[in-house]
Amino acid sequence: MTRHGTQKVLKRLNTPAFLKIKRKHGKFFVKAAPGPHSSRLCLPLLHIVRDLLKIVDTHREAKKLIVAGYFKVDGKKVRNKSFPVGLMDVISIEKLNLHYRILPDSHHGLILHEISEEESGFKLCRINNKKTVKGGHIQLNLHDGRNILIKVQEPRTPKEDIYKRMDVLKISLPEQEIHKILRFKENNIAIIMSGKNIGQVGKITNILKRFGPKASTVSIQQNGGHTETLYDYTFIIGEENSEINIPDLEN
Prior knowledge:
The chain is mainly β.
């Protein structure tokens, strides 16, 4: 099996549309490594450095900078060129004092949105599910692959169990301390993270729960209109106001 027959590269024609690969990159393209995000919903770090940030022109130059530790993801240095960077992840280039958050976008799927140094100190993580572990403690499994353990004093009456699936946590980086809980409920602000309406932002006006995630829907009000999306495509980003900086909705 040749090198291009391994899982380290993709044929350019098979790459997700949101990667926007140009012909100059040739037949093959770096593939995102297995990690916290789905391979269809993430950006390889090398692609970000070379093609989106345009810090360098070539694969070799980008790899050299990554291996040297110039880039942080969620507050930790990443030296793997194929590292998968996904929704709500924060990329920092300390030497240039530049910080970006990965957000969903209606035109490009996933985009790099520049944020302040202050905002780079936290991220939003959705609770995809939770479970009880040994000792009666609660493990929260978040959308980006990380787990947070909630210590419980009395397993029979766990007062600490205030977290629900689809709620969003505002956590510090890299410590991942919980600063705030954003509830999945009507009147809160949400962004659509997938599907044909990806990237749209608005206030939740109705949550219709049916049996199964594909049947449940959420209605979001935006610019006087309403958009309906699937339950699991919804990501809470604020209550009265968004907790994160987002692109101008008119652009």
